């Protein structure tokens, strides 16, 4: 069966995930992590814009921009080079990464900002707060390192202090007004956003959640630009429930 063609982002921006084969760890130690970051820098030198990154134990999140040459070749060089390094260091035989990388188009500024926050707060599953986690781009935004392109997000968020506030979210409290960064989304874009930030199957699982968790999910979709009608249509949740959850 031929591979399904990747969806092309009109903005040239993608949320990319790389996963270890068989869910195995991609990094045995900090030397592996440093080797991967060096290859990220090579990818930037190849002409890819890097907006955010985070190295977890068995997967990697990247938010990247295509400057016109496509993202597949630079990502292929990154994964191939790292796999050779990993196999050589650890006498590992076989694939290091699980198939092709996954990519989700990021078309709106609201989705762009939420993806950055999602990537930087991923280490909470390891018990680490974003400012304390070494292996992400969070500190680049705060301390001014030069691997990532930070100006776009910092301009939207009002500088470093706004960036830090944006990441200090407690439950459902939204500390940044994203209204100015929204536009009308298609149903396909809402599906992509939900999959990119909240995971595959999020829309289908939303009606099965407990009321409080469900309503939080509805509000998150609304803040990203999905209309009440779209949320109703894509999840099967009644319009009155959607509107109450969104406060409308």
UniProtKB/TrEMBL annotation:
SMART domains: Y1_Tnp (SM01321). This is Transposase. It comes from Candidatus Aveggerthella stercoripullorum. PANTHER family: TRANSPOSASE IS200-LIKE DOMAIN-CONTAINING PROTEIN, TRANSPOSASE, Y1_TNP DOMAIN-CONTAINING. One of its GO terms (biological process) is DNA transposition. One of its GO terms (molecular function) is transposase activity. Residues 9-122 form the Transposase IS200-like domain.
